[in-house]
Structures are given as C-alpha cells and as structure tokens.
Specification:
The chain has 9 helices and 17 strands. By secondary structure, the chain is of the alpha/beta class. The protein folds into 2 domains: 243 residues, Metallo-dependent phosphatases (Purple Acid Phosphatase, chain A, domain 2), CATH 3.60.21; 129 residues, no CATH class. It has a 6-stranded mixed β-sheet with strand order 4-3-2-1-13-14, with helices on one face. Strands 5-6-7-10-12-11 form a 6-stranded mixed β-sheet, with no helix packed on it. It has a 3-stranded parallel β-sheet with strand order 15-16-17. Helix 5 packs parallel to helix 6.
Length: 380
C-alpha cells in the first residue's frame, strides 16, 4: 500500500497587486504558512511522499529570499518531496530551480524533476512517471511517454504532470500544455496527479487536480485543498480524500439594488464575514440617498473585519427621496438645485459613465457635509 499527498499550484511569489499593500502582505504570507501546514499534515499522517504537481513558484524571477523561505517551510516533513516544474516555473536552461541549486538551499529529501522520466521510491515500491514542463507553453502532450515507460514489476505506477486535460477544463484554458483525458488508462497508471487548474477536480477515478493550496482568484472552483491518496496495491482503485488546508476563502458578489430591502439583505451578508474572508463586491442599480449611505458604511465596516476587500459601487445610482431632501435641508433653494442636477446627470442616458459615478459620489459627499452641520445650520 502507498499513501501520499498530492498538491500543486502554490504560486509562491504572487504579489496580489489588486489589493492594498497591507492586505497583499497577508495574502503573500498565507501561501508560505499553508505550505508549512501541508508539511505538518504530511508528518502527522505519516505519508510516504508529497507530490507537488507544478507551479511551485509564480515567477522565475522571485527573490533569493523567497526561494529560501519556501524550502525552509518544508522542514516538518522529512520524507520525500517530489516537485515538478509547471508553466510558471518551467525547467528552462536558467530557471528558479537552477538558482535554488546554486543557493544550495534544497533539502536532501526534496527531489526536483527537471527532465521527463521515471523516479523510483523504492521504500514504498512506487514508480513516479514525471512530465515536467521545460518551456512555458507547449502544444504537445508531455505525458505521451507514460504509455511506454517501463517500471519495475510490482511497483505502483503514479503519473505526475502539469497541464490541461483536453476537453475537460473550463474557460478555454486547454489550448496549451494538453494532456490526453485517457492517459491514466493508456499508461496503466494507478493515479495521475495533475496541476494547473486551481481548484481540486476529479477528472476520473484515477485522475485528479489538487488545485492551489491557498485561494488566489475570485472563482468558485473549490481551491484551498490538498488530496490524500491511498492505493492498496498496484492496479487497485485509489482512495482520494480532499483535505482543506487554505486559510482564506474568496468571495465575488455582484449585487443589483432595486428596493430598500436589497440593501438590508446585503448589509446582513456583509455582517457575516470575518478575518478569513477575501471579498470583491460590485453593486449596481438604484438606491435612495439614505440607503446608499448605509451601504457605504456597511462596506467600510466589513473592510475592517475581512482580510482583503475590493469594492466597486460605481454602478449604483443615488437618487434622493423627498425624505432625504428634508433631512438635508435641501427641499428648495440653491442646494436643492445642486441635488436635482446631480440626480439628472445619473438618470440621463446620454451621460458618460464616469460622469454618472462622480455625480453619485458628489451626492454622498454632499450628504456627509450636510449631516455634519447642526440641523439649524442646514440651509435651504
């Protein structure tokens, strides 16, 4: 029997430039922390090996410190680590892997497979058929040699590759680095460990994507897992257990505001988020001034609780009601004319989208200034 962990797409070195610097720093650190957690789990579960199916690093140009930190994070598990270059960290003549070798920071139990071939783990009678990417993009199936690769009798045959299973993955990403969907069968594999798709995904009973260990995109594709794989004997069906290891969950909310209760519902959802959530929220539609203000406050309160937040309320029109105008002292006079003009700018179908957004922002700013004044000083 063999038992191993399958993980992939760590993308160490990702910078998360879409977020504020302090938010990005936490997300960067989480990728190291979760690798450390995988090492601890590997030791606790006493597995035979950890297989990393490509894209360990996000870029070939990560700093020396990042390289050293990554390999230092592995120390809790002293068994074999088998690492495969992917499209982000391909085994070029000069690569992040050759730099790691020059830095002399590869632990003795870490095997980086830079050339296609078979790696034997004799202690657990396992033959790893490895297909590293030696360039970022290829239109040939690098796993083709698996079908004819010879392995010792009585050894488990486990494939390790990075690419897109043809005709299976979404969003048209299977245009390069293709892998035949029948490879596990044609190569007589007990298991095919894949990387590239960032969510954990069962292709068939013997072929799986592990997904990224720590979510890094606003996609609902089940990231944040590693897979624990057991095979009782050569030829037996593998038992695959997804194990959540990621710290953060990313949410993408696209909201349309039509009636005041929509704002109340969204405020209630925001209140459920905490320090392990990363949120991207986009709101469109129309809201009364008071409701728009309440939504802005709820978003900023959520910002203080969540790990990272991206927000776009530019599609939300702010249309003051009679009650809003009375509260602001803007029922008549110059202030009322300003409010009417800003409202007309938002409702005019000929208005430039930037102009519509600025009109909504101006209304909210005007409301804030007015509310800061003593009620008796609010002039009509």
């Amino acid at each position: 029997m063999i038992r191993f962990l399958h993980t992939a797409d760590w993308q160490i070195g990702t910078q998360f430039g879409q977020f504020e610097p302090d938010e990005a720093a936490h997300l960067v650190q989480a990728r190291f922390d979760t690798v450390r957690h995988i090492a601890e789990e590997a030791a606790a579960r006493n597995v035979d090996a950890v297989l990393v199916a490509g894209d360990v690093f996000d870029l070939q140009t990560v700093s020396d410190t990042v390289i050293r930190r990554l390999f230092a994070a592995l120390q809790a598990f002293t068994g074999p680590w088998i690492m495969l270059p992917g499209n982000h960290d391909a085994a070029l003549v000069e690569s992040v892997w050759t730099r790691a070798q020059r830095l002399n920071c590869l632990p003795p139990n870490v095997r980086v497979v830079l050339e296609p071939g078979v790696v034997l783990l004799d202690t657990c009678r396992c033959a790893l058929l490895c297909a590293p990417l030696t360039q970022r993009i290829t239109y040939d199936d690098t796993t083709g040699f698996f079908d004819t690769a010879e392995t010792p009798p009585g050894y488990h045959r486990v494939g390790l590759a990075h690419g897109s299973v043809s005709g299976i993955l979404q969003e048209g990403i299977d245009s390069s680095n293709p892998i035949a969907p029948t490879r596990a069968v044609s190569a007589r594999l007990d298991y095919l460990a894949l990387g590239d798709w960032h969510g954990h995904l069962r292709v068939d009973g013997r072929t799986w994507y592990a997904g990224t260990h720590e979510q890094d995109r606003f996609r609902a594709n089940d990231p944040g897992f590693m897979l624990e794989v057991s095979v009782s004997e050569p030829g037996a069906q593998p038992v695959v257990e997804p194990v959540r290891v990621g710290q953060y969950q990313w949410h993408r909310w696209d909201e349309t505001i039509v009636v005041p209760t929509d704002v109340d519902t969204l405020k209630a959802r925001l209140a459920t988020l905490g320090s392990r959530d990363v949120l991207r929220i986009t709101a469109s539609g129309t809201a009364a001034l008071a409701d728009a203000e309440a939504l802005h406050v709820a978003v900023e309160e959520a910002r203080a609780r969540v790990r990272a937040l991206r927000v776009d309320l530019s599609g939300l029109q702010v249309l003051p009601t009679t009650e809003d105008l009375a509260e602001l002292g803007a029922q008549s006079g110059y202030l009322a004319k300003v409010v009417a003009r800003l409202r007309d700018m938002q409702e005019d179908p000929q208005s430039d989208p930037q102009q519509v957004r600025r009109a909504a922002e101006a209304l909210l700013l005007l409301a804030r200034f007015q509310r800061e004044l003593p009620r008796e000083a609010r002039s009509a």
